[in-house]
Amino acid sequence: MQRRFTLKALTASVALAALGTAPAFAADTIKVGVLHSLSGTMAISETVLKDTVLMAIEDINKKGGVMGKQLEPVIVDPASNWPLFAEKTKQLLGQDKVSVIFGCWTSVSRKSVLPVVEEMNGLLFYPVQYEGEELSKNVFYTGAAPNQQAIPAVDYLMSKEGGGAKRWVLLGTDYVYPRTTNKILRAYLKSKGVKESDIDEKYTPFGHSDYQTIVADVKKFSAGGKTAVVSTINGDSNVPFYKELGNAGLKAKDVPVVAFSVGEEELRGVDTKPLVGHLAAWNYFMSIKNPTNTAFIKQWTEYAKAKKIPGHMDKPLTNDPMEATWIGIHMWKQAVEKAKSTDTDKVIAAMAGQTFNAPSGIVSKMDEKNHHLHKSVFIGEIKADGQFNVVWKTPGPVKAKPWSPYIEGNDKKPDQPAGKSM
Fold first, then answer.
1. How confident is the model over 295-325, as pLDDT tens digits?
2. Tens of pLDDT, residues 97-124
3. What gap in Å lies between CA 366 and CA 100, rounded to an integer?
4. Cα–Cα distance between 182 and 172 in angstroms, integer?
5. Cβ(380)–Cβ(147) below 8 Å
């Protein structure tokens, strides 16, 4: 009798599987979407974030998973194609039934994904600095808002220790993040008494490779007074830009460049010797010394070698968006366990006030209201080995201001997403 029951049950389960009702492991795993460009112009920056998510998943699974279930990554390649980001998000939420998505780099990709996660009530963790001017119930922003990166960088360059810049070149890739950030910076500079004629704004398309004319123009503009360049160039265009800076002999002591999208990974393919002293503003650098960061770098080094990750198996590097990804996935895990559920609305409620020991050396906190992390700000000088020497930092974590006070009307906007119950 027992044997007949077992056979019946087995036959039924095989029939269900054949019908494609559900994969056998669906009840035992929690699916996690990984939405990063693995090809195209943004692959130089995003591929390593996919690997960071996978490292975190492996680490969490080894320690027992989440609520006793293993995490199962579902990886897609939106290929630096902005409409494809939306399509892949629909696939992850609708077809693959993921509980959360970790992904995007550019703001145009995030803007493409946003209406999909809102309509389907999904959850996106976005790990990169951005222009602000957005709050969504369905997004947690683990990168910096402008007051956690762009404004402090400009303040530093205006200061005596930063060189006392009087003229400004705002140079970026032509899309929403650079244009909005530069709109904020232009208003901020004017509030500090900088004249319109002392601000030059330039944009290049994604994948742009010839910076000869632009660098020559910067050199000419700098003849009018102490000049600094604020770079929001994104993706693989950074390589020819920095090469041209070196070719033109534009040294940091003459015209310092501060970048918001260049870190350890982007400098990998560049001769950094002519770039020594140029700057980047981030909320984490690999060179920061503390036990949490030492452990993070060690874990990444071992993982990269074990998985034979190109570039990193020989020269492992960590950077700011990797740290933001690492913080995000661990905070999500903590929120799921607090909520005792992967239900989107329950996890959103449980995310408020989550904390995590960050490799940057602080206890990182998710704001109770505005879905942004409180973050320390660091400004680093490029060294000959492609690492950064921290020359300035905030005394402690800075609360994000998603709505910049330098854009008119923002003072009336609430500091929490619409539709979020508190």
1. 999 999 999 999 999 999 999 999 999 999 9
2. 999 999 999 999 999 999 999 999 999 9
3. 17
4. 9
5. no
Residues paired with residue 72 on neighbouring β-strands, in sequence order = 31
Question: How far, in Å, CA of 216 to CA of 223, rounded?
Answer: 11
Question: Which tokens belong to 141?
Answer: 């922003």
CA distance 324 to 307: 21
CATH number at residue 154: 3.40.50.2300
d(CA 311, CA 261): 19
The CA distance from 58 to 129, in Å, is: 26
* Cα distances (angstroms) measured from residue 259 to each of 167, 186, 317: 16, 16, 18
In a domain, residue 323? The reply is no
Number of domains forming the structure of the chain? 1
Sign of the CA dihedral with 388 first, then 393, 396, and 397 last: negative
Dmax of the chain from CA atoms?
94
What's 94's DSSP letter? I
User: Could you give the 3-state DSSP secondary structure of residue 388?
Assistant: strand
